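Renewal narrative, Specific Aim 1. Our central claim is that a sequence can be written position by position from structural information alone. The example that follows is taken directly from our test logs and has not been curated for this report. It begins with the structure tokens describing the chain, in the order in which they were read.
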């Protein structure tokens, strides 16, 4: 009887389409192991406690900001223990931007990057051509573009906070959350003001848009021609996209050229639960999914793999409407947001603060920044309390 390995991914074609395309081949090649997938919502992916998920599945897809919580909870296996079987050195050297390294934490490797993404700009080429407009290259140009033509942002929780972090990083701030302050006080107010000016140029519907909501609106209506920053989804660039979806073009975030930092990195990692009853089978499945040739197959079938070689493969790029080429510069410079235990509390609270600010900016910029910094301190303290460190 085959050993069943149960995996959880999130419910979007970018997440499951490529995985399902290669899982059948794996199951046929390894009759002793049966890999099965289930899905949960994007919101669950962004907010569901990792320790709860790990108790239910063998292979767990999760967002790297959860890594501190996961390590503190002891709910994942340290993949460093399987370094040779998984060829971690090759994965580190072939990482799509910092994707692999986002799951390295406290001398352990807690997941492998099965998916890579970051915030990029995105355009409707037909609408830009009709407006005789070019994609802006700087953040100030982005504001001027928005004042003239309008623009799109994802502002729903936690996406406004992701925009803020990207702007801070492009302005030169460290966004890793490793210090007492989240953002340098010389940068934070200017970043907040830029976010306000950009948000003022968006449709009212942007207040409820996630990344997918914004991209869907751009692909199905003529309301938005360009967005300066949104998490990239190849689904909207692929030639085989669903009928009725207009083609979107993914581009460098404005301000990337010459910037010390880059946009917020996203993506997803695949981890092995500490509760897994057959780690050897799970390691075998994980190693197959992260192998070079399989990563290219995942890309061709609609995924966004974690290996650079898959992003740079010409056949994968062609199958995705040049999506990988368009995103590569932004991904190569993308920055890692905080990952400390308790960080998800900051992401949620700061997302609400910035959503409220975008909806009705009334407080001085420094006052809003102070609220975000207070949320950062509280989240770190909450994480330390759970750990028994204070």
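The sequence written for that structure reads:
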């Amino acid at each position: 009887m085959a050993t069943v390995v149960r995996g959880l991914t999130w419910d979007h074609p970018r997440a499951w389409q490529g995985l399902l395309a290669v899982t059948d081949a794996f199951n046929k090649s390894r009759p002793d192991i049966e890999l099965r997938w289930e899905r949960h919502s994007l919101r669950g992916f962004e907010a569901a406690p990792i320790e709860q998920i790990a108790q239910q599945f063998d292979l767990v897809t999760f967002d790297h900001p959860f890594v501190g919580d996961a390590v503190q909870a002891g709910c994942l296996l340290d993949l460093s223990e399987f370094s040779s079987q998984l060829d971690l050195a090759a994965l580190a050297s072939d990482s799509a931007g910092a994707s692999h390294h986002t799951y390295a934490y406290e001398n352990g490797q807690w997941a492998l990057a099965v998916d890579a993404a970051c915030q990029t700009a995105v355009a409707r080429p037909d609408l830009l051509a009709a407006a005789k407009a070019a994609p802006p290259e700087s953040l100030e140009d982005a504001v001027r573009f928005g004042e003239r033509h309008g623009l799109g942002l994802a502002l729903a929780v936690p996406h406004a906070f992701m925009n803020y972090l990207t702007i801070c990083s492009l302005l030169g701030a460290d966004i890793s959350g490793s210090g007492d302050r989240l953002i340098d006080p010389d940068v934070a107010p200017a970043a907040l003001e830029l976010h306000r000016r950009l948000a003022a140029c968006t449709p009212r519907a942007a207040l409820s848009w996630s990344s997918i909501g914004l991209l869907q609106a751009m692909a199905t209506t003529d309301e938005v021609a360009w967005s300066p920053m949104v998490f990239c989804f190849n689904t909207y660039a692929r030639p085989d996209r669903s009928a009725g979806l207009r083609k979107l073009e993914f581009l460098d975030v404005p301000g990337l050229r010459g910037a010390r930092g880059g946009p917020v990195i996203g993506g997803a990692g695949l981890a092995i639960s500490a509760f897994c009853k057959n780690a050897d089978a799970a390691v075998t499945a994980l190693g197959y999914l992260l192998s070079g040739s399989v990563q290219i197959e995942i890309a061709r079938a609609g995924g966004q793999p974690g290996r650079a070689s898959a992003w740079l493969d010409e056949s994968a790029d062609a199958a995705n409407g040049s999506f990988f080429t368009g995103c590569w510069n932004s991904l190569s410079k993308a920055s890692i947001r905080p990952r400390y235990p308790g960080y998800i509390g900051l992401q949620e609270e700061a997302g609400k603060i910035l959503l409220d600010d975008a909806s009705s900016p009334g407080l001085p910029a420094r006052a809003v920044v102070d609220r975000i910094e207070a949320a950062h301190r509280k989240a770190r303290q909450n994480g330390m309390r759970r750990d028994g460190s204070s």
